[in-house]
Write a structure and sequence with these properties.
Blueprint lengths: L4 E6 L17 E2 L2 E2 H12 L4 E6 L4 H10 L6 E5 L4 H9 L7 E4 L9 H11 L4 E7 L7 E3 L5 E3 L10 E3 L3 E4 H7 L11 H7 L5 E4 L10 H11 L1
Parallel strand pairs: 1-4, 1-6, 4-5, 7-12
Antiparallel strand pairs: 2-3, 6-11, 7-10, 7-11, 8-9
Helix pairs in contact: 1-4, 5-6
The structure holds cytidine-5'-monophosphate (C5P).
Length: 229
């Protein structure tokens, strides 16, 4: 029998790089808040998925009122975010039982396809941890920061065929992710796979999607508008 599915949506950041008054997860894309579009992709992939939305404390009332006013009815628990993404996901994990599959997906990646969500969940039935990754198409360089503030390219070669750009959703067997998150915090934990790998658990990579962008800057928002159309 297929395992129950959970989704943790870390949307607990303030989105300072966007420079907007509203946290970026609530900015409108095609007339809907980015966070709503993001969650709807998963509900389309599986209407029975249990959603755990991680929000800044000051946004919880706003989001609850929005869901009520829009009649958005689905299995949702709202928890408050932590100091970093790691702490936000850890808060969300407290609501996830053992024996389930849990996806962690940035609240600001609304263009993930339903197919990618389903493919990753299917793979997670078999492997403890699966993530989407894209090959590097550009030539890659190490950068050297000089004392005068300029940036120089290092002569040290970097083989782009062995470097991948990693996205979300990252999907795990829930007891595996919970065990990994019982470690202490490290600044290297910028995604969930880093936490799982540090706990010695192997992570499978499936092909990601170039359109599955993380909306971080105003340019990303206008690119997402065009992709959505
Ligand atoms: O900061 P970064 O772009 O890596 O954020 C990725 C996701 O993690 C965003 O959806 C953001 O809202 C979330 N986040 C969080 N709690 C924090 C910081 C970021 O849930 N303290």
């Amino acid at each position: 029998m297929a395992k129950e599915k959970y989704l943790i949506v870390p949307a607990g950041g303030s989105g300072q790089r966007m420079g907007a008054a509203v946290p970026k997860q609530f900015l409108l894309l095609g007339g809907k808040p980015i966070l709503r579009l993001t969650i709807e992709r998963f509900l389309e992939a599986d209407p029975d998925i249990h959603v755990i939305t991680v929000l800044p404390r000051e946004s919880v009332r706003y989001w609850k009122d929005y869901c009520l006013s829009e009649n958005l009815i689905f299995s949702q628990k709202i928890v408050t975010g932590g100091f970093t993404r790691f702490h936000s996901v850890k808060n969300g994990l407290e609501k996830v039982p053992d024996g389930a599959l849990v996806a962690v997906h940035d609240g600001v990646r609304p263009l993930v396809s339903v197919k990618l969500v389903r493919d990753l969940f299917a793979a997670a039935e078999q492997f403890p941890a699966v993530i989407p990754a894209l090959p590097s198409f550009d030539t890659l360089k190490f950068g050297l920061r000089r004392e005068d503030g300029t940036l120089e390219a290092s002569a040290e070669p970097l083989d782009r065929s062995s470097v991948f750009s990693v996205q979300t959703p990252q999907i795990f067997q829930s007891e595996v992710l919970k065990k990994a998150y019982s470690q202490g915090y490290s600044t290297a934990f910028t995604d969930d796979a880093s936490v799982v790998l540090a706990a010695g658990i192997p992570v499978k990579m499936l092909p990601g999607e170039r359109t599955n962008i993380k909306i971080t800057t105003p340019e990303d928002l206008s690119l997402a508008e065009r992709l959505l159309r």
